[in-house]
Amino acid sequence: MLNILIETIWLMLPAYTPNNFAVIFGGGTPIDLGKKFINGRRILGDGKTFRGLFFGIFGGVLTGYIQYNVEKLLGVNLYSRFPLENALTFFFLFSFGSLMGDIFGSFIKRRIGIERGGKAPILDQVDFLIFSFLFVCHHEVFKELFGIEIIILAFLITPILHRLTNFVAYLLKLKDVPW
Ligand code: CTP
Ligand code: MG
């Protein structure tokens, strides 16, 4: 049981880290360029920036690349059983999906009247998860490594991990709010 828990967290890491990189390195020009949607509210808001998207993807791929090499070093055979370029494509899609889910979540939040930084239970915790899986679901790395038990466990543990990391980011003053 502990093994599969650790394996799930390990496999999910390249989808988890993009948002942390976005928090640390994000800022600047917002992706919606400050524009409003038909209901008069921002399309996405100032919390979704090009820099966050760029560094987020970079961070996710970097995380995966480090994991790939750590696995080789330790003789673990998860991501490292695939050729590096397949693994890198997977890391890119996984990170990109994660951030697109986060952006989609903000779009929904603005539509239902939640301001930037406002809390949206469930949506905040699973938007990126659903999108990261959608972006990789046709990839061979996903098909081979992500069994149904891993996917179910990811949905169960992600909300807890998400709260925990956001709270730490808040304590470190990286985020204004603990969610
Ligand atoms: N961030 C960014 N670009 C992104 C995602 C995140 O610059 N694509 C940065 C922003 O500084 C953002 C912070 O990371 O404020 C925290 O991310 P998140 O909680 O997703 O954004 P919120 O500010 O809470 O905005 P929203 O309500 O739209 O989720
Ligand atoms: Mg937020």
TrEMBL record:
Carries keyword Isomerase? no
Which pathway does UniProt place it in?
A: Membrane lipid metabolism; glycerophospholipid metabolism
Task: List its EC numbers.
Answer: 2.7.7.67
Membrane disposition: Multi-pass membrane protein
Per UniProt, subcellular location reads as: Cell membrane
Provide the cofactor list for this protein: Mg(2+)
Q: Which GO terms describe its biological process?
A: glycerophospholipid biosynthetic process
A Pfam family found in this protein is CarS-like
Main site of residence?
Answer: membrane
User: Any one cellular component term from GO for this entry?
Assistant: plasma membrane
- Reaction(s) catalysed by this chain's protein: 2,3-bis-O-(geranylgeranyl)-sn-glycerol 1-phosphate + CTP + H(+) = CDP-2,3-bis-O-(geranylgeranyl)-sn-glycerol + diphosphate
Q: Does the keyword Secreted apply?
A: no
Q: Which HAMAP family does the entry link to? A: CDP_archaeol_synth
The protein's role, per its UniProt record: Catalyzes the formation of CDP-2,3-bis-(O-geranylgeranyl)-sn-glycerol (CDP-archaeol) from 2,3-bis-(O-geranylgeranyl)-sn-glycerol 1-phosphate (DGGGP) and CTP. This reaction is the third ether-bond-formation step in the biosynthesis of archaeal membrane lipids.
> What is the official name of this protein in its record?
CDP-archaeol synthase
Q: Which organism is it from?
A: Geoglobus ahangari
